[in-house]
Amino acid sequence: MITAMEINTKRFEQAKPGYKPEEVDEFLNQLADQISGMTKEKEDTEKKIEVLVESIRRYKADEEALKDAMIGAQKQARAVMEEAKSKADAIISEAQQKAEQIISAANVKADEIIGSTAVRAQREQETLEKMQAAVSDFKSNLLSMYKSHLELITSLPESDAEEKEETSEEDSVTASAPAPEDMEATRVINTASMQ
Questions:
Q1: CA angle at residue 77 from 73 to 78, to 5 degrees?
Q2: CA 140, CA 181: separation in Å to the nearest integer?
């Protein structure tokens, strides 16, 4: 690819009839300025692509951490539910044994104990339902955060410099094949723009 420096330093032999040297120099200076601007724009775009690729890597790592956290929360919720159920079963079993012993002594006393046990079982059930609701809320919040991160990645702006760069590369006769890391960055950007 020709550089702005090569355009600025290029000199032509004068021939008659020929072009006005001032006009040729002015045109070459304009051309050099445009190529210099396009080169800077290309470098800026490449830096932005590197930043985007790094952001995507970070988001993928965050996604794995969120999945691990969700799995951990589900395991913990199962353990809490099993423990609550076990406690409720133990309380109910104990209450039934006491009730059977007390029934022979007095029906009134048995009714009070059964009533007390029912209240405790109801409290345990309410506690279990609250824990299940908390786990459900946590899961919803986690999924919502994950979706918002994906939307942030998808909404990152694209640059018109990318299209200009592709056009100038197609027009260049001596263009070489892109490096593998450029192809990967282009693939990542194209994938993001399709979404």
A1: 120
A2: 37
Q: What is the pTM of this model?
A: 0.31
Question: Rg of the chain's alpha carbons, rounded to an integer?
Answer: 37
The count of residues in the chain is 195
Q: In which region does residue 127 sit, left (phi positive, over 0), alpha (psi from -120 to 50) or beta (all else)?
A: alpha
- At residue 189, what is the residue type? I
Place of tokens 């589900």: 74
The yes-or-no verdict on residue 111 having pLDDT over 60 is yes
Q: What is the pLDDT of residues 1-45, one digit of tens each?
A: 677 787 778 776 776 777 777 888 888 888 888 988 999 999 999
Residue where the block lists tokens 């209240």: 119
Instruction: Provide the Cα torsion 162, 168, 169, 175; round to 10°.
Output: -150
Give the separation between CA 70 and CA 75, rounded to whole angstroms. 9
What is the rounded distance in angstroms from the CA atom of residue 162 to the CA atom of residue 164? 5
CB 158 within 8 A of CB 193: yes
